[in-house]
Design a protein that fits this description.
The structure is a homodimer.
Chain A: H1 11-33, H2 60-77, E1 80-85, H3 91-101, H4 103-107, H5 115-124, H6 152-160, E2 166-173, H7 180-185, E3 199-206, H8 216-219, H9 222-231, E4 235-240, H10 244-270, E5 281-286, E6 296-297, E7 300-301, H11 320-331, H12 335-338, H13 347-350, E8 394-396, H14 397-411, E9 416-420, E10 438-439, E11 451-452, E12 457-459, H15 463-475, E13 479-485, H16 493-507, E14 518-523, H17 541-545, E15 553-556, H18 561-573, E16 578-582, E17 587-589, H19 594-603, E18 605-607, E19 621-626, H20 628-644, E20 650-655, H21 673-680, E21 686-690, H22 695-701, E22 710-713, H23 724-730, H24 735-745, H25 750-774, H26 779-782
Parallel strand pairs in A: 1-2, 2-3, 3-5, 4-5, 9-12, 9-13, 10-11, 13-14, 14-16, 15-16, 19-20, 19-21, 21-22
Antiparallel strand pairs in A: 6-7, 8-17, 18-20
GO molecular function (chains A, B): aldehyde-lyase activity; magnesium ion binding
Family (chains A, B): Belongs to the XFP family.
Pfam families (chains A, B): XFP (PF03894), XFP_C (PF09363), XFP_N (PF09364)
Chain lengths: 792, 792
């Protein structure tokens, strides 16, 4: 504590804040323990206590403390603030505050601000059919669940971008601070523009312990911790102690100091002053874990240790001494002073809460759908490539998309950002830099390429930060696109999980308004890692995604530039989904004109008649494909079959929307069985060339008729630094193998087919030998396009 | 640069080091560009250049610089050192050094240390059929691929644990340093014991750029960066510049200083001095990206910018001026001074390399299987629980396992560690603390629970660190077990990917010796998140794992304590696998005696005759199960069927080894079709109660006969904070639903069955109402065990 701080508040005001804090603490403990007798109007008896005691006390008192103090600052300074509760286990604390502020009762009238409502508030917590124990979507004002730790600070920065009048107070637990994602988040301040963006106030709450251990940041020398925060570019303010009255004074004074500092930074930046990265304030708040809870149990200390992490007194119903300790604990807050005769918060408390949308639990920013405005989307059709005949021209699909994305950025300067781990240019979306920079608040040197504080492209070498910033940005009512190398998007598998769970849950909460979808563009995909090899080859994110609720996940594999444009336009208009789009960045054939592409994407899959030879009749074999590289191999295989087995009726089906393969009982996009059967037949061999792991197609189609005739080729985890055609050969996805697959599965093809089979094997060998000899693919395969014969 | 540093070396010695560096740089450039004319004995012509130019130059010169200087230190000081190349893209640099040291030629005699060998070294790099572009497993001395960035420093610490005589020089790229996992790694020094463990020397190489952007750590004020490193507990040494002669002098002097410091720290700790966390030295090395490469191209700077990231001159074969620039570049290293008439490294260079296993490329630590010694494993049978009849007693499976793990720790004080993200006690492996502490080098306070510098339990709230440390520990020839909450193991999905790829690749490298398997124990699983709810419910890691090569992945779901013991004993004896074991920590029935458990685990799956009513005959229905909770529900369903439909022939099959379900053509553990059919029948309904997402079972069995009769129940992403039985009901995995599934699928059951169906529906409703009313499960289901009737 800096004893030179001014005492900003009268003792009376401090007592008021303390009362508010005690009320929130009381309501927190009540939720964890009480079934009945919420105001302790009678002595506490075992039957007043829940039979199962669930929840987390340890982090709650500090969350409540910060909440009460921020309320004062909001009221006095007129701030717009969102409270980010990193210690997500503090659900009961957050709920306590929403009830005190009245927001909870507004959303749930039965949980009224009176004794009966308080009883319901207590009973429903962590109770079957009630509310979960975290700062979950059910908690008004929360945009951060915190069940999986590490994302509080990146969510806070994401919420602050393009919200100049918003301040995010972000409480970070010292447990959470040990995680990688959180450790990387501190330097997010490099990407925040004080003129255009809001402010983030990190409050690192050192309570010293996690589940069963002390925390690293509490046990290294305090001087090192402050040095670290200084190194991250912050001005750290230490508030430390275990005496409430003292902490109230120092925290209040410190908050006044830091909000003044934030205001000064913003004022300077916004009045044409420096745009150099300012040294933002942050607070290190060192208070005991489970503060104001039971001092000890069975001779062991509880308050101030990891023993207060969950439920400090675990046997209250059976142990009279624990019951008495609980009653003492609850009464230590003096509920009789805090709630009036009806059970409502006392008038002294009610006046302390901010009004209306100034209440952190009622901030529209924390229910971002309320603020969501549609994107202004330029007509994607204008960006298409001309296609006079299938495969007549080539394009780099993501480069074509980049021009549209550029204009989306330009048309939406306040509500759309592009996120990528240093891969925006590599993924060929570089057109964006014709209209904007990469956001950058650190030193800029001559020759730097499109860096600037106003940049709308967010590039940092951390998929975690890209994902977390974007989540925070979306949850506060904006839009975005995350482009990544396909293989490394697995870095955020678990973050995707949590976001998908958030979406699923909010679909069931009437007062939560829909937000924009989280859009992934995965490029530099498994089939084209010429520079990088095996470590960069993994198409499994799709497999991961489809485990989540069908209502919130969509997967698209547009085969060319025009279908990519149509798909991405659809994704940017959608709400409450996670859209995964996989597309190549290398020159590849354009198959469909824009009109054809739109129709194809609307259907999600369909027969490519120009590549087929069944002419509307029942085919002998279906060649299905999904993904740009498999589509090329499939078209080439169909061409080989047409030339060599002209009487064979081949149908080519291309799949853009992968979820169409599932039955309509499993996914909203699922194709009804009759339509599926009409496309794929029920009894003919289907050779499916797939972008990813082949079994995913089986998992999506195992209920379909004729599944036993389905043969899937895809990535089977074979790869290295090699040529594109060598990669498909390594995984038996090449055109020659597809032809062999047809020959092996269609009966009665006769002698011609046996010869063709041999020819295909020879072609594979010739291609491999050429590649080994010259280090490049045989031009006959590398340069092949429809209409050209394949000559090896 | 600190100009007060002593100049430790003569100018002649510095010139020697410079020559070594130039040789490595020459060999690096040669690999990227040259097909032929390796020594430039004739003027460079287009046909000497590779048709596809692949690889990464930018990071290579600094990797080579550090390598050359470390060689001097190794030789002069007799150090045992491993080189961790965080910038994994520097594959050609690492290969250059292994060739200079002779190691590469020892493993690959055709790539000899002469002109012909040099030509092969050049040609094979990033060439089809050759070697990949990273510091991949193919590179002697590498235990870190670095394709996916972020793990260098955690691998280094993992390698240092229990290796007191080893120093790991860990070069960290400033791009990599932006990732979360790397950011969290710095504080690994809290867990390193200078007395018992080796040393890690982090060398943060600021070259200023990543793929297309400057790096954050280079562009924040240098003072902030040093403050950050100080905050992490290091003593940072800055070496900065772009003049080779100056850098040689300062780097040499700095290395002498830091190795002296390391030596002093270790000496003090090992001579009974302080065990407090020392301030280890680290180096910030600021050198230009692509140093010594082309200065510029087409008027734009290349050296010292992101443009040197991959191949600085990209059109050498077609552009004579670029060809000339490449020749100038290569000749600038003066190859004629560096290689003798045969093409071998000049004598002056050869004497500089350390000898034998002192060569970093030949360190046995970097081929850990060479050093691997079997664990001393106490007989797990002695730790089993007594089971007089199935379900006659309860146990917490992981707690039972904990006693065995305790004794594994005690019996292997130098080669086994237990890793967990603050969840070892929560996952009920707390018995470990009877024999050891949690490793902890920071401040210890009275009342702390088993913390100490010698602890063999590694707890930090970062799954990334647990995984990375363990990988480093395994790759250097030791053993370990990682225990985590099931849901959050997804945090390391991508790290698992990279490790599985490493294992798959090393299986094909003769000189790489097998290492111990990476063992996961996932507990606190999806079905028992009573405190935590939806965010903690995700059983999908198994789905992720089975995408990797069958030869390296194994998945086990032991249904009780004795099977868990048997399974884990098997896993700790295995090599070159990733073993995933999912087991509960809550009290649950013991089904099998130890002898039965061993036999059941050996088979991997089998009929539980005591729970079945088919008595060796063809059953009417098969109830299959995998996982502890589904097994309980299945046994209970079978019991209900026995009581209510006594004539129905029910077979109960339990699956421990999930890979047994796949055909033997797909996985080495796969069951031959005949055996599968004998267990599951080919035409009877199979109701499969599965621990995870139900479609995984379909994906494993879609090729099996009778797959159309398979009906799987599992987790379908429904959950919240609720009771255990409510959880299974939410996902239709409960005993009552399983009975209904049987009734709906077995024909001809008659009127009795219709009544039973209604009864089951009523039971579900009664259970739900009881839970909603009282907050706990109905005792009739919660307390049910075989032999007791189910009375609601």
């Amino acid at each position: 504590m800096d004893k030179t701080l001014p005492a900003p508040l009268t003792e009376a005001r401090l007592r008021q804040i303390d009362a508010y804090w005690r009320a929130a603490n009381y309501l927190t403990v009540g939720q964890i323990y009480l079934l009945d007798n919420p105001l302790l109007r009678e002595p506490l008896r075992p039957e007043h206590v829940k039979p199962r005691l669930l929840g987390h006390w340890g982090t709650s008192p500090a969350l409540n403390l910060v909440y009460a103090h921020l309320n004062r600052c909001i009221t006095e300074k007129g701030l717009d603030m969102v409270y980010m509760a990193g210690p997500g286990h503090g659900g009961p604390a957050m709920l306590a505050n929403t009830w005190l502020e009245g927001t909870y009762s507004e959303h749930h009238p039965s949980v009224s601000r009176d004794e009966a409502g308080m009883a319901r508030l207590f009973r429903q917590f962590s109770f079957p059919g009630g509310v979960p124990s975290h700062a979950a979507p059910e908690v008004p004002g929360s945009i951060h669940e915190g069940g999986e730790l590490g994302y509080a600070l990146m969510h806070a920065y994401g919420a602050a971008f393009d919200n100049p009048d918003l301040t995010i107070a972000c409480v970070i637990g010292d447990g959470e601070a040990e995680t990688g994602p959180l450790a990387a988040s501190w330097l997010s301040n490099v990407f925040l523009n004080p003129a255009r963006d809001g402010a983030v106030l990190p409050i690192l709450n050192l309570n010293g312990y996690k589940i069963a251990n002390p925390t690293v940041l509490d046990r290294i020398p305090r001087e090192d911790l402050l040095s670290m925060m200084h190194g991250f570019g912050y001005e750290p303010h230490l508030v430390e102690g275990d005496d409430p009255a003292t902490i109230h004074r120092t925290l209040a004074a410190t908050l006044d100091t830091v909000f003044d500092r934030i205001s000064a930074i913003q004022h300077e930046a916004r009045s044409g002053g420096t745009v150099e990265r300012p040294r933002w304030p942050m607070i290190v708040l060192r208070t005991p874990k489970g503060w104001t809870g039971p001092r000890e149990l069975d001779g062991k200390p509880v308050e101030g240790t990891w023993r207060s992490h969950q439920v400090p007194l675990g046997a209250v119903r059976d142990d009279p001494s624990q019951l008495a300790a609980l009653e003492d604990w609850l009464r230590s807050y003096h509920p009789e002073e805090l709630f009036d005769a009806t059970g409502a918060p006392a008038a002294e408390l009610r006046v302390q809460a901010p009004r209306g949308e100034k209440r952190m639990s009622a901030s529209p920013h924390a229910n971002g759908g309320l603020l969501l405005r549609d994107l202004v989307l330029p007509d994607f059709r204008r960006y298409g490539v001309a296609v006079d005949r299938p495969g007549g021209t080539d394009a780099e699909a993501t480069r074509v998309l980049g021009e549209w994305v550029r204009d989306v950025i330009a048309a939406n300067p306040d509500r759309f950002r592009l996120f990528g781990p240093d891969e925006v240019a590599s993924n060929r979306l570089g057109a964006a830099f014709e209209v904007t920079d990469r956001a950058w608040g650190a030193r800029i040197e001559p020759g730097d390429d499109h860096l600037g504080p106003d940049g709308r492209v967010m590039e940092v070498l951390s998929e975690h930060l890209c994902q977390g910033w974007l989540e925070g940005y979306l949850l506060t009512g904006r839009h975005g696109l995350f482009t990544s190398y396909e293989a490394f998007i697995h870095l955020v598998d678990s973050m995707f999980n949590q976001h998908a769970k958030w979406l699923k849950t909010t679909n069931g909460i009437p007062w939560r308004r829909p937000i924009a979808s989280l859009n992934y563009l995965l490029s530099s995909h498994v089939w084209r890692q010429d520079h990088n090899g095996f470590s960069h080859q993994d198409p499994g994110f799709i497999d991961h995604v489809v485990n989540k609720k069908a209502e919130v996940v969509r997967v698209y594999l547009p085969p060319d530039a025009n279908t990519l444009l149509s798909t991405m336009d659809h994704c940017l208009r959608s709400r409450q989904y996670v859209n995964v789009v996989v597309a190549g960045k290398q020159p590849a054939p354009n198959w469909l004109s824009m009109d054809e592409a739109v129709r194809h994407c609307e259907r999600g899959l369909g027969i490519w008649e120009w590549a087929s030879t069944d002419r509307g009749r029942e085919p002998d074999v279906v060649l299905a494909c999904a993904g740009d590289v498999p589509t090329l191999e499939t078209v080439a295989a169909a061409d080989l079959l047409r030339r060599h087995l002209p009487h064979l009726k081949v149908r080519v089906v291309n799949v853009v929307d992968l979820m169409r393969l599932q039955p309509d009982t499993e996914h909203p996009h699922g194709l009804p069985d009759r339509q599926y059967d009409a496309l794929f037949t029920t009894d003919k061999p289907v050779i499916f060339a797939f972008h990813g792991y082949p079994w995913l197609i089986h998992r999506l189609t195992y209920r379909r008729a004729g599944h036993e005739h389905l043969h899937v080729r895809g990535y089977k985890e074979e790869g290295t630094t090699t040529t594109p055609f060598d990669m498909v050969m390594l995984n038996d996805l090449d055109r020659f193998t597809l032809v062999i697959d047809v020959i092996d599965r269609v009966p009665g093809l006769g002698q011609n087919a046996a010869g063709l089979r041999q020819e295909m094997s020879d072609a594979r060998r010739a291609c491999r030998e050429h590649t080994r000899a010259f280090g490049v693919d045989h031009p006959a395969v590398a340069d092949w396009r429809p209409g050209r014969p394949l000559e090896l």
